[in-house]
């Protein structure tokens, strides 16, 4: 079950306190409710505070986990739940999620997003591998305004969670290739579990061993589409959809052919924001 955190978020300045507070809904840039005298550059140079309250009942608290999912933040931000810092959005990932059940309480709960100045020394220490560099090339968006471009939501997980999904390409000497989809998961309770994995119009439903933590599915491609980072178009990507009980993930998968036949390589993947549909 997914619970949208749509609705009004209170926006307050942390730098220039003379700027009036206002309410904002997402997706939107902060400038949507700020005075017209503030340029986008001036907004990005300041620090901002967003606040939203949600009621939580006993039924929600009885679940095994509740993930907070936030996407579409292009600037450094700190996420807080009931005054506790739970994670940072560091601009290097498309989507962020964390189990916030330990931070929730019965009744009203406060969610905060703080756009703060980032430590430059921390940026210098960030290491990026080849795939993350490829992601930078492919994920450049025209939107540079500070804001939130996807509505945050809660994913309520009573029985299991998708921990990680990877796609691996294996070329064949006789032509074509295989895409291996690796699923890592966590089962919270004993019982029968199954995962549904969809790729390129094909669907596998895999029974899962609750004592294990990973499984894989193999998809055959006779005439694969490959991406070119220099001339990238999203229509060259495949859609990968994975569901495990209440846990749901979707990705754009771009295959790039730079490896010898018979070898395998991890492929470019971009997680898609699923809920709510904007």
UniProtKB/TrEMBL annotation:
<dbReference type="InterPro" id="IPR054593">
    <property type="entry name" value="Beta-mannosidase-like_N2"/>
</dbReference>
<dbReference type="GO" id="GO:0004553">
    <property type="term" value="F:hydrolase activity, hydrolyzing O-glycosyl compounds"/>
</dbReference>
<keyword id="KW-0378">Hydrolase</keyword>
<protein>
    <recommendedName>
        <fullName>Beta-mannosidase-like galactose-binding domain-containing protein</fullName>
    </recommendedName>
</protein>
<dbReference type="InterPro" id="IPR008979">
    <property type="entry name" value="Galactose-bd-like_sf"/>
</dbReference>
<feature type="domain" description="Beta-mannosidase-like galactose-binding">
    <location>
        <begin position="36"/>
        <end position="128"/>
    </location>
</feature>
<dbReference type="Pfam" id="PF22666">
    <property type="entry name" value="Glyco_hydro_2_N2"/>
</dbReference>
């Amino acid at each position: 079950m997914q619970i949208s955190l749509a609705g009004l978020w209170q926006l307050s300045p942390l730098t220039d306190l003379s700027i009036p507070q206002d309410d904002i809904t997402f997706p939107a840039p902060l400038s949507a409710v700020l005075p017209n005298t503030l340029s986008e550059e001036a907004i990005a140079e300041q620090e901002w505070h967003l606040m939203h309250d949600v009621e939580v009942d006993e039924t929600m608290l009885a679940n095994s986990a509740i993930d907070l999912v936030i996407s579409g933040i292009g600037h450094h931000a700190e996420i807080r739940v009931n005054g506790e810092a739970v994670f940072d959005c560091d601009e290097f990932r498309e989507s962020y999620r964390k189990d916030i059940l330990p931070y929730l309480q019965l009744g009203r709960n406060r969610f905060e997003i703080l756009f703060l100045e980032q430590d430059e020394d921390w940026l210098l220490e960030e290491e990026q591998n080849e795939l993350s560099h490829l992601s930078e090339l492919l994920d450049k968006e025209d939107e540079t305004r500070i804001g939130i471009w996807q509505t945050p939501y809660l994913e309520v997980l009573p029985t299991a969670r998708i921990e990680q999904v990877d796609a691996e390409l294996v070329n064949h000497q006789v032509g074509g290739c295989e895409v291996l989809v690796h699923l890592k998961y966590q089962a919270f309770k004993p019982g029968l579990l199954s995962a549904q994995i969809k790729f390129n119009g094909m669907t596998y439903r895999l029974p899962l061993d609750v004592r294990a933590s990973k499984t894989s599915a193999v998809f055959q491609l006779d005439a694969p589409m490959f991406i070119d980072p220099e001339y990238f178009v999203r229509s060259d990507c495949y859609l990968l959809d994975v569901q495990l009980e209440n846990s749901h993930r979707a990705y754009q998968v771009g295959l790039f052919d730079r490896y010898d036949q018979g070898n395998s390589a991890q492929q470019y993947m971009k997680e898609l924001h699923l809920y709510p549909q904007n």
